[in-house]
Structures are given as structure tokens and as C-alpha cells.
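> example.struct
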């Protein structure tokens, strides 16, 4: 067999597997995590206008999401960190964008259900990857709007998408998706953002509890007005801490961790909505703060190690190499 014949045979072989197993199309996208420090709930019948105002930090850790479509995919399935999940928010994104069955797989480098905006990051990643795989011809603004609507209707978040789609330390001035929402940013220096995830809080259950929602709105309003008088990273942390105490959402362990962080030169508060403490410190105080947080290592969720460490990210969601 000469070289040309052998090449033709190979082509025939590849064609055969392509035809018989079906062609699958895959795309992957990444979206950052986000910690809300304080917020106010803005109800609206129109999910495009519903959302939150408030302030939070976009992280350099997030969620990678792969979408696969093709002959081998017969029904829509969603996986998170290797396990099949209901994934309501991601599923809503898929259902709004297509009837084609897809396999969505997300891998989170942030804890889930702990106030790091994992559901929002997954929804954004799914929207970007789905658009690429199925050539849906949507723009970034439109994909972001879909992710926002999916979060809001499933009550897995209100303002995470607005922050995650912009990057930085985001002040959400007007609620809603990109169509109606308005943001600004705190001009913040580079800083490590430490976290201790102590436990999960279901965002859905807090948002549907009227008494808690009332406390959130009262405390969120004060925090925003105080932040805008002095929009610095340090003042954000102070306002977040007052907000967390005034809403009564803080667990006693979280309180202890926050006090220890403050005693060691840091500024700390609770990540909304999770039983999670996040903390920052001036550069020279970062190590003492880290050591103080490590003391609480045993009570932290172990999945990601004891003290989580991220940076503030100004990056926005993006498609990864095909
Ligand atoms: N990337 C993802 N893909 C699919 N399902 C996800 C993803 N991230 C979170 N979920 C699901 O969302 C639920 C947790 O949502 P919840 O809104 O309470 O937490 P979160 O989004 O991680 O953090 P936050 O408190 O900041 O909203 C869980 O049921 C989890 O399985
Ligand atoms: C509701 C929320 C605290 C959940 O993470 C967040 O989406 C926000 O700040 O709107």
C-alpha cells in the first residue's frame, strides 16, 4: 500500500466513526465567582428588571462550564463537579435558548451554596458555551441577560450576574440584567481575598423569607448610602460587616472568625448568602491574617482546603479554547 492509499483508508476510517457515532460539538466557557458584601432586594414582575443593588467583589476563582451537543446527546443533563444535579438555573438558561438536548458539565473552583455565586457563574458559562456550540448568534449582552433572568426566576441570585459580567469591586446602583441594571466600581487596589466556608445557606430560602428580606432591605439601604460617601475597599468591608450584623444572618462561628480577623489587622465580613467569612488585609498584614484564619481550619468545609485564597478579578466571562 502506497502512502496515498493509506491516507485515503484512514480518511475512510475517520468518516466511518464520524458517521456511526455522530459528531459532537463542544465548547467551554469560564465565569468568575462573586462575593456580595451587602445588598437590597428589588422585587419586580419583570425578571429583566428584578434584581438587587449592593456591592461585592468579583474573584479570580470561578466555574468552568462545558456544553456538548450532537448525536450522542439525547436529553439535557447537568453535572456539577462530576455529579448529576438538577441545576435549575443552568437548566433554565438552556431551555430559554434552545430545544436541542445538551450535556452541561460545570467544575467549580469555588464552594457551592456558600455565597460565592456558583450558580450565576455556571449560568453565564452555560450561556456562552451554548451560544458557541449551537451558533445561536447572541451577543454578550444578550447572553448575560439570559443568565440574569435564569438566576432571578430560580431565586438562586439577584445581582451576581451584574457583577460577574463586569469584574472588579462592583457597586450595583440599579437592579436588573444589562438592559436595565446600572453599575459602577470601587477603584480598589490589588488584594488577596481570603475565605472560610463554614456551611451552606440556600439563597432561595432566605430570599423567600419576608422577615429576613425586610431586615436585608433596611440594612442594605444604609450600607449603600454610607458606601457612596466613601467608595473605598476598606469602607466596603466596614459596611458589609455592619450589614451582616444588622440582618442577623451571621452564625456564631462566623462572628468568632470575623473578630479574630479584625484582631489580626484584617477586615472581614460574611459572604452573602452563605455561612462564609471573607477577609482582606493591607499587604503587610496578609500573612498574620491568613494565620489567624487557619486557626479555624477544623471547622471549615474541607473540600477546598481550609483557608481559601483568591484575588480581586477585573476579568469578565470568556470562552476557552475549542
Ligand atoms: N455551576 C453550577 N451548575 C449547576 N448547578 C449549580 C451550579 N452552581 C450551583 N448550582 C446549584 O445551585 C444550588 C446552590 O445555589 P445557591 O444560589 O444557594 O448558591 P451559590 O450560587 O453557590 O451561591 P450564592 O449563595 O452566592 O448564590 C445548588 O443546588 C447547586 O447544585
Ligand atoms: C442574593 C445574593 C446575595 C445571592 O448571592 C446576590 O445575588 C446579590 O447580591 O444579589
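> example.seq
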Amino acid at each position: 500500500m502506497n502512502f496515498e492509499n493509506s491516507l485515503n483508508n484512514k480518511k475512510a476510517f475517520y468518516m466511518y466513526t464520524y458517521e456511526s457515532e455522530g459528531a459532537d460539538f463542544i465548547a467551554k466557557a469560564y465565569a468568575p465567582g462573586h462575593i456580595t458584601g451587602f445588598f437590597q432586594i428589588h422585587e419586580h414582575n419583570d425578571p429583566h428588571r428584578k434584581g438587587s443593588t449592593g456591592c461585592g467583589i468579583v474573584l479570580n476563582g470561578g466555574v468552568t462550564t462545558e456544553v456538548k451537543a450532537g448525536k450522542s446527546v439525547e436529553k439535557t443533563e447537568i453535572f456539577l463537579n462530576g455529579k448529576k444535579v438538577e441545576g435549575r438555573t443552568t437548566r433554565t438558561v438552556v431551555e430559554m435558548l434552545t430545544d436541542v438536548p445538551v450535556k452541561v458539565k460545570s467544575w467549580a473552583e469555588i464552594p457551592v451554596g456558600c455565597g460565592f455565586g456558583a450558580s450565576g457563574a455556571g449560568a453565564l458559562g452555560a450561556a456562552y458555551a451554548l451560544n458557541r456550540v449551537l451558533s445561536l448568534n447572541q451577543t454578550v449582552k444578550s447572553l448575560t441577560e439570559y443568565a440574569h433572568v435564569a438566576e432571578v426566576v430560580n431565586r438562586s441570585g439577584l445581582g451576581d450576574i451584574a457583577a460577574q459580567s463586569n469584574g472588579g469591586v462592583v457597586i450595583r446602583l440599579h437592579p436588573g440584567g444589562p438592559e436595565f441594571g446600572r453599575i459602577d466600581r470601587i477603584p480598589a487596589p490589588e488584594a488577596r481575598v481570603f475565605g472560610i466556608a463554614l456551611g451552606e445557606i440556600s439563597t432561595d430560602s432566605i430570599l423567600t423569607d419576608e422577615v429576613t428580606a425586610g431586615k436585608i432591605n433596611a440594612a442594605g439601604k444604609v450600607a449603600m448610602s454610607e458606601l457612596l460617601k466613601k467608595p473605598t475597599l476598606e469602607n466596603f468591608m466596614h459596611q458589609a460587616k455592619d450589614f451582616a450584623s444588622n440582618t442577623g444572618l451571621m452564625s456564631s462561628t462566623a462572628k468568632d472568625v470575623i473578630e479574630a480577623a479584625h484582631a489580626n489587622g484584617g477586615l472581614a465580613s460574611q459572604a452573602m448568602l452563605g455561612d462564609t467569612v471573607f477577609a482582606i488585609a493591607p499587604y503587610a498584614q496578609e500573612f498574620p491574617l491568613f494565620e489567624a484564619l487557619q486557626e479555624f481550619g477544623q471547622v471549615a468545609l474541607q473540600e477546598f482546603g481550609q483557608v481559601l485564597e483568591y484575588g480581586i478579578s477585573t476579568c469578565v466571562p470568556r470562552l476557552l479554547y475549542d
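> remarks
The pocket of adenosine-5'-triphosphate (ligand 1) is lined by residues 63, 78, 80, 85, 87, 90, 106, 108, 112-113, 115-119, 122, 156-157, 160, 202-203, 273-274 (CB under 6 Å).
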